[in-house]
Design a protein that fits this description.
Elements lengths: L4 H7 L12 E6 L30 H10 L4 E6 L1 H4 L12 H17 L3 E6 L4 E2 L10 E2 L11 H15 L5 E4 L9 H17 L6 E4 L31 E6 L17 H14 L4 E5 L6 H16 L3 E9 L11 E6 L8 E6 L32 H10 L7 E2 L11 E2 L4
Helix pairs in contact: 5-6
Bound molecules: 2-acetamido-2-deoxy-beta-D-glucopyranose (4 copies).
One 2-acetamido-2-deoxy-beta-D-glucopyranose binds next to helix 1.
């Protein structure tokens, strides 16, 4: 008999600490998904891309600052399925070993050299074969009406292989997919379950985080009728009971992360998903959230970080976003889109990207160039970046003094200590 996650977790309730604790805190590293956007949706654009030119994974100096000075222990590292598994191979267990090598090097820098935890983030919106107009292009994985779509079994096979390669690294966390959307929740759960089964068959015990549908929006968790996340995501079964839920939540009018103004109160909007987590005895990470440097955003970001710290359902978070920052004065600018499109409204932001984020902002600025959360980044006018105005004075103050620095990442957390203690 298969037990649902909720039944399993219910039985474990006495083993978990009743007090609210954030065990993992840090920042999303966006760059590995760069370099593929095409104004004409030309399939194959930017593939495989030039490592360090079109895309990258981390800047080691940024990671150094974040861990050594800021004492964060979690990074979420984006990559593209079409680079790990080139379309000529298809999605599955056959990887581009050169590309995998670059990725592994970044993950080992974070986990082995710096001792922090890393979420592997296939930034694909549950789609594969054409990232040229992410988040909408490409066939939905498991769409049996689309002969060009990768299958649910292929998605499982991909995760089984990736998991096998990191199974000996207890600081690696498997983020199954970034922001699935416009896919039936039954198919989403089938795909996620195939990945969980395949990961566990590979022998990996690592923490898994499973995303919700509808862009993983926390505010939308109980909405959407029969397809609501609250009707589906707790049906996932993990034989090792080490799967948490992956939620995203922005604070602007349409929850897109595109706007400068913060108007959506986090505690109000997260109440539904928190109640659902409590009902099913599940734990969660919020792996994308953010705000600009307005007074209202500062208040709401504080509110959101306090809310996670005070509700035991939340065990970790990564703010959106840091990312590769190269101070190359001659930067070759390339056109990129960064699109944050959530259930309620469509927001497409066109950015001039060069050297990666450069002075551009990963979220929350109405396309103004206020820099990113990457240490050392600057706004386009040379003024302080979001790292200076939001990370250091706001988010950094909510990084707990004690986090988990050793042992397997787990839904139950681990031993808390200060870095180096
Ligand atoms: C998972 O939870 C169930 C229900 O509490 C329990 O029977 C099972 O032993 C657990 N499995 C592991 C590997 O802890
Ligand atoms: C594999 O990755 C390397 C490095 O990015 C690239 O040069 C090569 O063309 C890729 N191979 C395929 C089949 O995509
Ligand atoms: C599945 O594929 C069919 C055929 O291409 C398409 O009409 C349909 O919109 C696809 N479904 C999803 C969820 O993308
Ligand atoms: C936010 O930061 C940008 C870039 O440094 C700056 O131009 C702007 O005035 C700041 N806004 C507020 C409200 O402080």
């Amino acid at each position: 008999m298969k037990l649902s996650l909720s039944a399993i977790a219910a039985a474990c309730v006495f083993a978990t600490s009743a007090s609210a604790t954030i065990f993992y805190a840090g920042v999303a590293e966006s760059s590995g998904e760069f370099g593929v956007w095409s104004a004409t949706s030309a399939k194959g654009t930017g593939l495989p891309g030039r490592f360090g030119v079109d895309y990258s994974f981390i800047s080691t100096s940024g990671i150094d600052v974040m861990v050594d000075q800021n004492r964060v222990n979690l990074f979420r590292v984006a990559f593209l399925l079409e680079r790990m598994c080139p379309p000529s191979f298809g999605l599955g267990a056959k990887f581009n070993e050169t590309h995998f090598g670059y990725f592994k090097e970044s993950i080992e820098y974070i986990t082995k050299k710096k001792g922090a935890y890393a979420i592997l983030d296939p930034h694909n919106y549950m789609r594969y074969n054409d990232p040229s107009s992410q988040p909408f292009s490409g066939s939905v994985i498991g769409n049996t009406s689309d002969p060009t779509a990768a299958t649910t079994a292929q998605f499982g096979s991909f995760w089984g292989e990736l998991a096998k390669r990191f199974a000996d690294n207890e600081k690696v966390i498997f983020g199954l997919q970034n922001e699935p959307h416009d896919v039936a929740s039954s198919l989403l759960v089938s795909n996620l379950q195939a990945a969980i089964d395949s990961i566990r068959r590979s022998g990996a015990k690592n923490l898994i985080i499973a995303p919700g549908n509808s862009w993983s929006g926390g505010h939308y968790w109980t909405k959407g009728g029969a397809d609501a996340n609250s009707n589906w995501i707790h049906k996932l079964v993990d034989p090792l009971n080490n799967t948490a839920v992956d939620i995203h939540e922005y604070l602007d009018q349409d929850f897109s992360g595109g706007h400068l103004a913060c108007t959506q109160d986090p505690a109000t909007n997260l109440a539904g998903v928190t109640a659902w987590l409590k009902e099913h005895k599940l734990k969660a990470f919020i792996t994308e959230f953010g705000g600009s440097n307005t007074t209202a955003c500062v208040t709401m970001l504080n509110g959101m970080l306090d809310y996670m710290a005070q509700n035991e359902e939340y065990i970790g978070w990564t703010a959106w976003a840091a990312g590769m920052f190269l101070s190359r004065p001659f930067a070759v600018f390339q056109l990129q889109t960064y699109e944050r499109i959530h259930q309620d409204m469509l927001t497409i932001l066109l950015f001039q990207i060069g050297p990666f984020w450069g002075p551009n902002s990963p979220c929350c600025t109405d396309s103004a160039q206020f820099g990113s959360l990457e240490p050392g980044s600057k706004a386009a006018d040379g003024g302080p970046s979001l790292y200076d105005t939001i990370w250091l004075p706001v988010i950094q103050k909510k990084v707990p003094a004690k986090l988990q620095w050793s042992g397997l990442a787990s839904v139950n957390g681990g031993t808390l200590s200060t870095k180096g203690a």
